[in-house]
């Protein structure tokens, strides 16, 4: 499965950059041309979309993934989900015109506080490496550092025939501990609002909580804290609206998911996780390691698998989805947002997420 090779794909390095022949004319290469020459290979192609350097990954069954390099946003994931020749389906929801203004998709949120108290977030990614062990597994490694360069951050995006994976590795080369808040959040497309749900969270504790702020997120804290307009069901006492709160240490802020299917047609913003007070105990129940989206409109489902993260975030726009286009979407993914990860000097922190399917 994808998770087995997520951190272990270390293959021969791509051939070094070929020297250009000297001539009287000077050839100026674009960033994407330089990257293509250095890291490009079968299944890994660098190009530009609206002057934004991108890389497209593809495997033998023609499943594909497109990644914007500078901000690390996966703007497209099209796996093969039907046996017919054109049996591909776009999983991610984005808005924008193909340049740096694109929002949605799937991205990494990584925030911290420097020793001087200033806040920072991972950004301005550059290509570190590109690997493939066959035409059935390809990956690109991006890297960046924090303000004082005490943290070495690697972001790995991988594609397989039936899955895609994202992983982050943070190495603390500084002399002080660092607190990290992180999440891998994806905007998943649905055919209809009525048929959107998630399975696999029954029995898990959750609290209402705003989403992580990010440059690519469609759901803002303000939007999610404002409830949907009341429907006719609310006048019958059947409203499913809930208040979004940040009082995560209050016992009354927590509930337990009783339903086999978590319905996502109404606006909600939740974190499924063990309450912070429970994590102080020697033994406590964690959130599930995986859950599955259900789209009754398309009949497709995708499993989201978390590794290294403690929380699961789920947000749905409800009636607000109309301002983002005709299709419905949710925002979901693995995260460490309630309790920061503490990375000691010389320490390393790893986390990953896999989106896989067995629709074939």
UniProtKB/TrEMBL annotation:
InterPro entries: Gal_mutarotase_sf_dom, GH-type_carb-bd. This is Photosynthetic NDH subcomplex B 2. It comes from Dendrobium thyrsiflorum (Pinecone-like raceme dendrobium).
């Amino acid at each position: 499965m994808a998770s087995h090779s997520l951190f272990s794909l270390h293959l021969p390095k791509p051939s070094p950059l070929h020297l250009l022949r000297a001539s009287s004319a000077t050839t100026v290469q674009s960033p994407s041309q330089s990257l293509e020459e250095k890291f490009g290979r079968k299944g890994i192609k660098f190009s530009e979309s609206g002057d934004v350097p991108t890389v497209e990954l593809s495997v033998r069954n023609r499943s594909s993934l497109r990644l914007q390099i500078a901000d690390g946003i996966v703007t497209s994931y099209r796996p093969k989900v039907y046996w017919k020749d054109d049996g591909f389906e776009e999983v991610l929801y984005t808005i924008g015109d193909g340049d740096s203004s694109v929002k949605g998709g799937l991205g990494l949120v990584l925030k911290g506080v420097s020793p001087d108290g200033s806040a920072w977030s991972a950004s301005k990614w550059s290509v570190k490496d590109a690997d493939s062990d066959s035409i059935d597994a390809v990956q690109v490694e991006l890297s960046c550092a924090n303000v004082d360069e005490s943290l070495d951050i690697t972001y790995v995006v991988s594609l397989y025939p039936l899955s895609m994976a994202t992983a982050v590795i943070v190495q603390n080369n500084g002399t002080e501990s660092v607190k990290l808040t992180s999440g891998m959040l994806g905007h998943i497309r649905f055919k209809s609002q009525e048929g959107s749900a998630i399975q696999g969270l029954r029995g898990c504790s959750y609290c209402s909580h705003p989403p992580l702020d990010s440059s690519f997120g469609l759901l803002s804290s303000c939007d999610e804290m404002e409830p949907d307009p009341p429907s006719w069901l609310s006048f019958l006492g059947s409203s499913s609206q809930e208040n979004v709160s940040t009082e995560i240490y209050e016992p009354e802020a927590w509930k337990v998911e009783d339903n086999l299917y978590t319905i996502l047609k109404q606006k909600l913003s939740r974190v499924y996780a063990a309450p912070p007070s429970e994590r102080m105990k020697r033994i406590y129940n964690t959130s599930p390691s995986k859950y599955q989206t259900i789209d009754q409109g398309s009949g497709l489902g995708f499993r989201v698998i978390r590794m290294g993260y403690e929380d699961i975030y789920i947000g749905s726009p409800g009636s607000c989805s109309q301002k983002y286009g005709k299709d419905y979407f949710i925002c979901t993914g693995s995260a460490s947002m309630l309790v920061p990860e503490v990375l000691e000097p010389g320490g390393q922190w790893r986390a990953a997420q896999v989106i896989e399917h067995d629709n074939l």
